[in-house]
Amino acid sequence: MYKYPLSEQTIHEISEIKEEPLWVLNKRLEAYKIFLQKPLPTWGVDLSTLDFTQIQYFTPTQSTKHKWSDVPEGIIKDFERIGVPGRERKYLAGVSTQYDSGVIYHRLKDRFSKYGIIFESIENGLKMYPELFKKYFGTLITSEDNKFAALNTAFWSGGSFVYIPKGINLEIPIETYFRINAKALGQFERTLIIADKGSFVHYIEGCTAPQYLESSLHSAVVEIFAMKGATVKYTTLQNWSKNVYNLVTKRALTEENAHVEWVDCNIGSRYTMKYPSVVLKGDNSSGKLISLALASENQNIDSGGKMIHIGRGTKSTIISKTICQKGGTSTYRGLSKITPNAFNSRAYIDCESLLLDSDSLSQSLPTDEVKNNSSILEHEAFVSSISKSQLYYLMSKGYTSEQARDLIVQGFASSVLDLLPWEYSVELERILFHFSKEEENEKN
Predict the structure, then answer these.
(1) Residue 244 belongs to domain spanning
(2) Are residues 112 and 257 in the same domain?
(3) Domain boundary at 212, 241, 274, which?
(4) Rounded to the nearest 5°, which phi and psi values hold at 81?
């Protein structure tokens, strides 16, 4: 198989294969220079073992399929084996599936497209809606933002382009699924969501990878624009294998009375650094982040979020839950900032950690700023463990030790489980069960 190494030549080849306009190629090349200049972060997880020269930066995939019956049987079996909803369901607005660097299955039901809703691969979004694409792409997360945003801008391939027209309430979700299917692969999908005035959309993203000896890199960028009165809900369930570096940049911008909600589940990966953010620009706009992270042996999950209050009367909520076992490490790292002119604003942060053994580590590293006297910021955090009294009480009601532990873990994560669509909630419950069972079996 032809290799696409870290080089300008690879960027030229990607752009040529995708038949991109010159301005996109120039943007890629500029981002590549910025990537080379920027140092690795000295905070967060240890990235010293990440070797960029060993990563494959592009993998051409099969042509896009528009009927489920046309999708290769091997891929269908992969979906069924790992528990990801495979066949397109009647209640879904659309399903997009990306293996490695490209989208192989993509469909939007005609009854939604007639309302002007756009749900395309990021490449088709560029080709079909060039002016809309250029107006927003890379404006909220620039190449200067951080080293991995620059890397994504240089090598992006695959991802989604979504536009919801003014006043359209899309009550059923748009669903996507990303999979790293090759070893030592870099996956750099790019997602751009634009919700026009008074609209509503729920975007669901599932991610996974098989286990390979060579480390893989997932470095995505997500930009969300919520116009006046719009609501965007973005749900992520990531279940990476333990050889993946998950280094992601996600940010949303809210106009007046708009609302953005992140539901973020981080499972697996060797290292994760991800902090979904909302810039509350418009007056009376709001943002919410609810995150769940699981860290086990040889895993370090550094996650959290940012809420930047700019408009007056803005509101934000961050609820972070982490569960650690077998020496796993989890860190909440967040920023809640109320700027001087964001009068009468309010921010709330709640960090909760559950340790399943004495070898694991959980820490909270918040940065909270309030720059005016009319606003309120509240922050609480606590770390707990499964106590013998909790186990004894549940076992006295007839539960086994394993069932009791599972109930405690499920209850701790219930606020996240309740927000997931049914099929993802069932999958997360299954993951939590095996997670807590793994520690119980280790003790026995």
Answers:
(1) 8-274
(2) yes
(3) 274
(4) -65, -40
Answer yes or no: is 333 within a domain: no
pTM for this model (two decimals): 0.87
Show which of 274, 304, 322 is a domain's final residue: 274
Confirm if 354 and 409 have CB atoms less than 8 A apart: yes
Two tokens, residue 206:
């599932």
Structure tokens at 33: 């220079």
How many whole angstroms separate alpha carbon 293 and alpha carbon 246?
A: 13
Instruction: Report the first-to-last Cα separation within the chain, whole angstroms.
Output: 46
DSSP 170-217: --SPEEEEEE--STTBEE--EEEEEE-TT-EEEEEEEEE----SS-EE
Helices (H) and strands (E) in the chain, counts: 11, 22
Residue 314: inside a domain: no
148 and 18 share one domain = yes
Distance between alpha carbon 23 and the CA centroid of its chain, in Å? Answer: 28
Domain annotation covers residue 193 = yes
Closest CA to 60 of 123, 18, 23: 18
Give the model confidence (pLDDT) of 151-210 as tens digits: 999 999 988 899 999 999 988 888 776 655 556 678 899 999 999 999 999 998 876 555
Same-domain pairing of 397 and 258 = no
Using CB atoms within 10 Å of the CB of residue 53, give its burial: 0 to 12 exposed, 13 to 18 middle, 19+ buried: exposed
Cβ-proximal residues to 77 (8 Å cutoff; 6+ apart), any chain:
none
CA angle in degrees (0–180, nearest 5) for 379-238-232: 65
Please give the Cα distance from 276 to 246 (Å, whole number): 13
Report the C-alpha gap between 221 and 218 in whole angstroms.
10
- Which residues sit opposite 118 in a β-bridge? 163
pLDDT in tens, 200-249: 999 988 765 555 546 689 899 999 999 999 999 999 888 777 888 999 99
Pairing verdict, β 271-274 and 231-240: unpaired
Tell me which residue of 211, 214, 199, 260 sits closest to 239, measured CA to CA.
211
Split into its structural domains, the chain has a count of 2
258 and 396 share one domain = no
Residue 233 covered by a domain: yes
Rounded CA separation 124/163 (Å):
13
